[in-house]
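Colleagues,

Please find the record for the two-part complex below.
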Amino acid sequence: GESVGLHLPTLSVQEGDNSIINCAYSNSASDYFIWYKQESGKGPQFIIDIRSNMDKRQGQRVTVLLNKTVKHLSLQIAATQPGDSAVYFCAENMNTGNQFYFGTGTSLTVIP
Amino acid sequence: AAGVIQSPRHLIKEKRETATLKCYPIPRHDTVYWYQQGPGQDPQFLISFYEKMQSDKGSIPDRFSAQQFSDYHSELNMSSLELGDSALYFCASSLRTGGAFFGQGTRLTVV
């Protein structure tokens, strides 16, 4: 399953399928990006980050892709599990600033 | 591993009262951030500190103030509370050029 950020803030996928969550970031000067997972009533949990000198970074079951040309970030989750159900946010940061701007979250629901 | 600690976890205040939220960053982190998150909303940046000095300021109301102390813990002071201040308040910490790690938040309810 795949989301398109602002236009599809919810995403439902079958357990075991791959998920793709998209994010369009706003500032071309942003050079550091983080994906966060937030479960209900909890704080955002750091999943994976990527700097602007890279276009791909892989973690455990997750891959982040960065396309600076179109200011687009995506999070791919392999073999999605029920525990992956949460709201996912991308956050951008400029090296000159001490703040992370959060994009609109995407709610991922994994169907067993 | 040590995480960001926030206290209290829950707080109920009446309108026009004051509230103080505390944040203890991850050891050796030099930057602290405060965010406000309303129901179904994205976290909104309020303010950040680097090495105990205010670094960046976001959409923080004038009724709110914050500081970072010599031991790097931070406090968010909120006065003349309004119903609209009811939200989750998160603190995060990072190294200057690293990712921000969030605490579990303080749920503030203004009645």
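Chain B has a mean pLDDT of 95.

Comments are welcome before we finalize the supplementary table.
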